[in-house]
């Protein structure tokens, strides 16, 4: 604050007058008086003198002193002014201590963070029930050139494809394909059975389905009899 502003505030509070009352009495705005009292605006001596006179503080000796001299002689802390209550210091917020997350929650967080580069692919058994899942890298938004949402692992149910290095319990990555691919190992379905077989096309409407444990076996079937689910890309061996 300025000394003149202090003096005006002191006299107003002594007389228990509001800023609005003083401003109306002296013909000034309430905001102007507020700025003067808080030291944000400089007031001229003659204007301050008029305000003090309106407040009844003018004396016969007023002309002998300037308002600056009066203000400098007043001990504003010892003549009982209305003291301002210091603003309370803002409360410090207690740091939030993160709670330990469960392994399942942590796994979910990592999956969300890596969702653009890794995809959890379901592992399906022969009954087409999901038994687990595996994380597979995504490249250019695809897995092995296929829609990531349509790729599955097939759990080998028996040793009927051991001759092709696929044993019971191994996991075979399957990408969707509804047409036979000559020379490919494919996941096929006919009747109520799903199985892995190597496909050989020998006529436009016929194929050979090859399998083998210790010896190769082949079965000729019409293409229309078989539902092709997908093509095997790679095998992950259970140790």
Task: Explain what you see.
The structure is a single chain. With 239 residues, this protein is an alpha+beta fold. It has two domains: 3-73, 434 Repressor (Amino-terminal Domain); 112-236, Ribbon (Umud Fragment, subunit A), CATH 2.10.109.10. It is 23% helix and 27% strand. The protein contains six helices and nine strands, in the order H-H-H-H-H-H-E-E-E-E-E-E-E-E-E. It has helices spanning 3-14, 19-26, 30-37, 45-54, 67-73, 103-113; strands at 118-124, 130-137, 152-155, 171-176, 185-190, 193-201, 206-212, 216-222, 227-236. It has a nine-stranded mixed beta sheet, with no helix packed on it. Strand 6 and strand 7 form a beta hairpin. Helix 1 (3-14) packs across helix 5 (67-73) and helix 2 packs across helix 3. The radius of gyration is 46 Å and the shape is rod-shaped. It starts with a helix and ends with a strand. Residues 59-65 and 72-84 have low confidence and may be disordered.
């Amino acid at each position: 604050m300025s000394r003149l502003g202090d003096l005006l505030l002191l006299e107003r509070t002594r007389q228990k007058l509001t800023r609005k009352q003083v401003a109306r009495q002296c013909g000034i705005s309430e905001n102007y008086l507020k700025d003067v009292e808080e030291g944000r605006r400089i007031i001229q001596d003659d204007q301050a003198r008029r305000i003090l006179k309106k407040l009844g503080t003018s004396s016969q000796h007023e002309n002998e002193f300037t308002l600056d001299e009066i203000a400098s002689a007043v001990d504003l802390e010892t003549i009982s002014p209305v003291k301002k209550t210091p603003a309370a210091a803002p409360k410090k917020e207690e740091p939030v201590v993160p709670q330990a997350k469960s392994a399942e929650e942590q796994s979910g967080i990592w999956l969300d963070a890596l969702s653009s580069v890794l995809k959890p692919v379901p592992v399906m058994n022969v009954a087409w029930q999901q038994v687990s899942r595996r994380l597979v890298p995504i490249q250019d938004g695809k897995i092995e050139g296929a829609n990531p949402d349509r790729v599955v692992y097939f759990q080998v149910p028996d040793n009927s494809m051991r001759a092709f290095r696929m044993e019971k319990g191994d996991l075979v990555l399957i990408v969707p394909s509804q047409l036979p691919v000559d020379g490919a190992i494919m996941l096929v379905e006919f009747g109520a059975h799903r199985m892995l077989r190597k496909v050989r096309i020998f006529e436009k409407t016929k194929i050979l389905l090859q399998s083998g444990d210790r010896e190769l076996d082949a079965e000729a079937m019409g293409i229309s009899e078989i539902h092709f689910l997908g093509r095997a890309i790679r095998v992950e061996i259970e140790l």
